[in-house]
Amino acid sequence: MTTTLCNTVKTRSKALDNLRGLAIFLMIFDHVLLVFHGPFVIRHTLTRAAMPLFFVIGGHLIKQVSWRIAGIGVVGILIPIAIPFIDNPNVLFWYAAFAGPIVLAKRYPISLPIIVAVALTVAANGYVKLVGNSYDPLSLFSLMCLGAMIPRAYFSFGTCIPGWIGTVGRFPLRAYVLHLFLLEALIR
């Protein structure tokens, strides 16, 4: 009996959708705490896990550069114009900017742990220089590289998260942009 890989069907990972949904809920809660001056301790612990989780999953999922990713980058540049309280340049810009290097790095897998090690060394020694009021780009890039190194099976714990959360995780960009505009409307 022989098997072929030619007829392999790609299926959507419910575990990854659930994890992205969890990250979205954490991010929304984080932004609500930011806008309405919620408890510092929650905002700087629990809810701040959203961005690293997004970038690890994003690095894992990125396979090729596309016009869709370029559009995400443009949204990342434009969002801070309409939503002044958000990071500028926005994390969406950094995700799109690093998509190409991640695709290249996946061709040379040894480069991925080297990038993560360099980023950790730079951050640990305090050499990080922020751009605007955004996250450190090298840290975001290293999170994407880390995600690119993680096998799909390691994300299977996402199946423990309720499926309704994964429904939101199927549309992360829409949820992200919509919640920002809703929050901006509430504070005006």
Architecture blueprint of SSEs:
Layout: H1 14-35, H2 40-43, H3 50-61, H4 67-82, H5 91-107, H6 111-124, H7 137-149, H8 163-169, H9 172-187
Summarize the model shown:
The protein has 188 residues and is mainly alpha-helical. The chain contains 9 helices and no strands.
Task: Describe the protein.
The protein has 188 residues and is an all-alpha fold. 64% of the residues lie in helices and 0% in strands. It is built from nine helices and no strands. The chain has helices spanning 14-35, 40-43, 50-61, 67-82, 91-107, 111-124, 137-149, 163-169, 172-187. Helix 1 runs antiparallel to helix 3 (50-61) and helix 5 (91-107) packs across helix 7. The chain is globular.
List keywords for this structure.
single chain; 188 residues; mainly alpha; 9 helices
Q: How many helical stretches?
A: 9
Order of helices and strands: HHHHHHHHH
| Number of E strands | 0
Largest sheet data: none
